[in-house]
Amino acid sequence: MDSRQALAFIIAHNIVQKRKLKEKRKKKCWVRKWVDRRSDLGAASNLVNELRLEDAQQFKNFIRMSAVQFEMLLDLIKHQIVKQDTQLREAIPVHDRLMVTLRFLASGDAYSSLQYLFRIPPCTIGRIVFEVCQAIYDNLKEKYLKCPSSTEELKKCANQFALKWQFPHCFGAIDGKHITIVAPQNSGSLYYNYKNTHSIVLMGVADANYKLIYVDVGCNGRISDGGVFNNCSLHDALESKQLTLPEPEALPQRHLPVPYIMVADDAFAMTSYILKPYGFRNQPAPNRIFNYRLSRARRIIENVFGIMSSKFRILRKPIHLAPHKVKYVTLATCALHNFLISTSNYYLCPSSVDSENPITREIVNGEWRNELQPEGTLFPLERGRQRNYSISQKDVRDEFREYFMTTAGEVQWQYQFIC
């Protein structure tokens, strides 16, 4: 046998062996039979229709909104999430795509668990959730998540704080929260934070009505408290004067003009537009009264984050997604939070947020605080170190302190909280 014949024999032998292996190999199905019967037997849509007709409260609990709100949201985003049918298969309907996403946000269940409820494979659910979260944020941000851009809008926010929380010249409460994630591969300590978890940071500003008026999501969790704010677009807009604050004005029955500010905790540096409390040790009574009044206004943003994590349980556990997908999941929950406040009167019931006893004025914790575990997945940024402030910044804080001690600025119950 010459070399050519030997080579031909080897090639033929290999072809025969490959064919035998191919015949022995178990063929993979194109679509699992129980998944393919989704259009015939239905999935969660049947259950949802029953809840919609027979139990409206459980329908709200299932996806965190009423049937009317679901239809409103669907009308807003369906043009972005609709898919075309093909000769191979029918596209998943837009209402199922939105339903599986809302259930994922509400429950935090894994894709592998949701597949049995919706008869949709996990890989498909992953693509749906990301696309729908993008669509929710893209279509709701202009109307429901818009940052005040004019002095009139900022003054309106400040008037609400003065009316509801007796803190004038305040247009928002700012804070940051860590959204816990499963560490991405080869990320090292990039997302590692001081709580020994991996996270990205949600920086938010809330108005007096528990609505978010600014959010920034995506900064890795290892960045310090000051660095998170310094890297966000709000800081850049304030520093460059692109966001024009109202001109400083004197407080009622006072003479020194003070600027419009945001209230923050000790994790932030005090600037001309951020007001923070005095140090918490060995402070005289007027300083402690100021700290109480500032903390009373700042609790708004704490409640916003707490309510979001209570309603959308995906925020209460490490999210096993890539950071850029976690960013859109978080942005979608922020947009939905404002959407639900604006379109319903049940989302923020009196018991769901912190309130004050009308007689003793003691704080009554909202229901969300009872639901969070001691080591929850949403926790505040680390407390900052004491910093040296300019004389003007100290004067502004002192002016607020003096105002809260006058008859025009005091509240009757503040003195019982300074011990």
The major beta sheet can be summarized as: 5 strands, mixed
Mean pLDDT: 85
Distance separating the two termini: 104 Å
Nearest-angstrom radius of gyration? 27 Å
What count of helical segments does DSSP give? 16
Provide the structure class. Answer: alpha/beta
Number of E-state strands: 9
Give, in order, the helices and strands: HHHHHHHHHHEEEHHEEEEHHEEHH
Beta-strand fraction estimate: 5-15%
The order of strands across the largest sheet is: 3-2-1-6-7
Residues in helices, as a percent range: 40-55%
Describe the structure.
By secondary structure, this protein is α/β, with parallel strands linked by helices. The chain has helices at 3-24, 33-36, 38-41, 44-54, 56-63, 67-81, 94-107, 111-118, 122-144, 151-165, 225-230, 233-239, 285-311, 323-343, 367-371, 391-403; strands at 170-181, 198-206, 212-220, 249-250, 257-258, 261-263, 274-275, 355-356, 363-364. It has 16 helices and nine strands. The strands form three sheets. A five-stranded mixed β-sheet has the order 3-2-1-6-7. One of its GO terms (cellular component) is nucleus.
Write a short abstract of this structure.
The protein has 419 residues and is an alpha/beta fold. The protein is 48% helix and 10% strand.
Q: What attributes characterize this protein structure?
A:
419 residues, alpha/beta, five-stranded mixed beta sheet, two-stranded antiparallel sheet, 48% helix, 10% strand, elongated, nuclease, metal-binding, hydrolase activity, nucleus
